[in-house]
Specification:
alpha+beta; Alpha-Beta Plaits; four-stranded antiparallel beta sheet; 7 helices; 17% strand; globular; binds ribavirin triphosphate; binds magnesium ion; EC 2.7.4.6
């Protein structure tokens, strides 16, 4: 399994607030190569499937309804040490705790509407990328 890829979504809040371009710019400036890219919208059902790992958590229902509330941008990204470096680039889950200069510190307003998703492991990056992209959609 590759260790140099991660999966991201620009979440509905960041899309609605006009940050798609700025966030993709930050991502490419940080050295990530875009392997796949899609502007789409999750339904309640597909958001529920994507976040099934959190099904038992208290915030699951709100998370699913937020993630299906508007369009998102999904992408597979490539870079050495992608998982760890990308999570460093986006900052802490709660933007109030995110380090200066991170994507969540710059563009997110709350722990629920926190601008971006980043995979937490190689295994999940593979699963999440496969959720959105077929082989012929990767370059
Ligand atoms: P993500 O998966 O979206 O990249 O975020 P993450 O790894 O930093 O956080 P995770 O624990 O995977 O949680 C997924 C999303 O659920 C919301 N959340 N709310 N109210 C809460 O305590 C809480 N904890 C998590 C966040 O929007 C988080 O991004
Ligand atoms: Mg997570």
């Amino acid at each position: 399994m590759s260790t140099n890829r991660t999966f991201t979504m620009i979440k509905p809040d960041a899309v609605a607030n006009g940050h798609i371009g700025s966030i993709l710019n930050d991502i490419t400036n940080a050295g990530f190569k875009i392997i796949a890219l899609k502007y789409t919208k999750l339904t309640d059902e597909t958001a529920g499937q994507f976040y099934a790992v959190h099904a038992e958590r208290p915030f699951y229902k709100d998370l699913v309804s937020f993630m299906s509330s508007g369009p998102i941008v999904a992408a597979i990204l490539e870079k050495d040490n992608a998982i760890e470096d990308f999570r460093k680039l986006i900052g802490a889950t709660n933007p109030a705790e995110a380090a200066e200069g991170t994507i969540r510190q710059k563009y997110a307003k709350s722990i629920d509407a926190n601008a971006v998703h980043g995979s937490d492991s190689d295994e999940n990056a593979e699963i999440e990328g496969n959720f959105f992209f077929k082989a012929d959609e990767r370059f």
